[in-house]
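Hello, quick one for you while I still have it in my head. Could you read through the record and tell me how the tokens relate to the sequence? No rush at all, and the record is pasted right below.
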Amino acid sequence: MEEARRRIQGGSGVSAVAGVAAEKKDPRARRITALLVAPGIIWMVLFLVVPMLMMVYVSFWTQKTFTIEPTLTLNSWIAFFSSETYFGALLRTIRIWLIVLAATFFLGYPTALFIGLFIKNKTIQTIVLVLCVVPFWTSFLIRVLAWRPMLGKEGAVNIVLQKIGLISQPIEVLLFTEFSVVIGMTQIYVVFMVGPIAFMLSRIDPSLIEAARDLGASTWRIFRTIIFPLSLPGVVVGAIFVSVMVLGEFATSAALSGRKVNLLGNIIVTQVGSLKWAFAAVVGVMLTAVMAIVVAALLRLADLRKEL
């Protein structure tokens, strides 16, 4: 009996290998696969790879006053790393990104936890998620500028705090500082953290949590060993969304800091406006490199292809 089972298993294994080999040798299957994949590859090469390579190439061009020459030089790179203003902008961008990422996580995860686990009705879940994106029905610029009358020296926040007696003088650091930039970015991008996490939480089988409770697990242990690990892919996706958008930001910092907080995005806009294409390319390469490192590091936290 055991010998027969081995033969059957061996025969099925050989058949599977033969099937895979036949499929690889089938030219028609290969042509269909190539035709299906080709449009995406061509699109990525033309509109992602080529522009990025061109940006790297231009970053080594020689920058004149209002023109550039295709003579390769390291002057623009040396100017970037030797200037406290520009290198400081890189460090400031990374610092604000970390703060906003942490703020969106700590604000977004409890909201997603409520939507994904405590709201059982799928229709109500959808309604609540739609309410989270209601601010996106208005202009991005309006949402940013709306914080100015809220955070100003004579704004709503200072007025309320003075009325209830918490402060005697208006707080001046609420606006035109890094603090105001962080508040604005957190409010704008927190929904990108809520959505993916709520989606992953809604997929958790309630019987897992019930079984853990029956076995005597505490609420914190259930969260630490079941809920958070299963929601980690959503956290990674949300973190990627927030990171890419915050690292490339320039409008929010310009509007809420009074152009006092310069991020890499602001420098790119300024340099392009001054026709300094080579230096703008250097900053663009640095920003792209930072984004690539951040996304690669986040993708190591969870296997999205397996989980999603």
